[in-house]
Specification:
- There is one protein chain.
- The chain is of the alpha/beta class.
- It folds into 2 domains: 11-94, no CATH class; 105-213, CDP-glycerol glycerophosphotransferase, N-terminal domain (Rossmann fold, 3-Layer(aba) Sandwich).
- The chain has helices at residues 105-120, 140-152, 181-189, and strands at residues 11-14, 17-20, 27-28, 33-34, 39-41, 44-45, 57-58, 71-74, 79-85, 89-94, 125-131, 157-162, 173-177, 190-195, 210-213.
- A hairpin with a 4-residue loop joins β8 (71-74) and β9.
- α1 runs parallel beside α3 (181-189).
- The longest helix is centred in the middle third of the chain and has 16 residues, at 105-120.
- It starts with 10 loop residues before the first strand and ends in a 9-residue tail after the last strand.
């Protein structure tokens, strides 16, 4: 991908052939499984003795199979497409989580200027909405607040912002994709918002809503 991220796959060898299986909806991480990150992924072969990609070999398609692409697979929340570039080099495209009705500056502005004010007229819900590093983690002070509320047995719904579904959440915590309809609704109606960074410049605490800004890191940075 453009992030130079590698996701190794197990390879099986039999009768002079090899097989690698990709399950893009359940990519393993240290904490669990997440979908394949959005973007273009280029399959490559690498010897087990190599440390980086400098000697990788691209996975290519047989000439008689070129016409079979593209192939699309509908995952739980996004579409994965197998396509080719440079005639026969295979790549996997992991599509966006947000549907076309929510993508782009214009549609997001409608959600901000039309949908959000409507939601802010509705009663607040007894819920805590957590934002940790723009939805890229569920950690730091917001995670600590969540764990303390659980320890105390506080009866609230726990909701966490996530970005590109790349966060493994504890059981009972509902994830809302950044920029989704559920995200705008949670931001407008959660009684408590706990964040360690900025959310959006237009976000203003409504009456009765409590926003806890913990920030992150240490004040002793140079």
């Amino acid at each position: 991908t453009g992030r130079n991220e590698d996701r190794p796959l197990p390879v099986e060898f039999a009768d002079g052939r090899f097989t690698a299986r990709l399950r893009p909806d359940t990519m393993p991480t240290y904490e669990g499984t997440v979908p394949l990150r959005a973007g273009r992924w280029m399959p490559r072969l690498r010897r087990t003795t190599e440390w980086d990609h400098t000697r990788d070999l691209p996975v290519t398609l047989r000439p008689d199979l070129v016409g079979t692409l593209p192939l699309a697979h509908q995952g739980e929340h996004r579409t994965y497409t197998v396509e080719r570039v440079d005639f026969d080099r295979i790549f996997v495209e992991s599509g966006p989580v947000l549907g076309p009705e929510l993508r782009g500056a214009y549609r997001q502005r409608l959600m901000r200027d039309v949908y959000t004010p409507e939601q802010r007229k509705l009663p607040l819900r007894e819920a805590v909405l957590y934002n940790s590093f723009g939805g890229k983690q569920f950690s730091d002070s917001p995670r600590a607040v969540y764990e303390e509320l659980k320890r105390r047995g506080t009866e609230v719904e726990h909701i966490a912002m996530v970005h590109d579904q790349q966060v493994v959440l504890p059981p009972g915590v509902r994830g809302v994709e950044w920029g989704s309809k559920e995200w705008y609704e949670a931001l407008a109606r959660s009684r408590y918002v706990v964040t360690n960074g900025g959310i959006r410049e237009w976000f203003v605490r409504r009456e009765g809503q409590v926003v806890v800004q913990t920030w992150h890191g240490t004040p002793l940075k140079r």
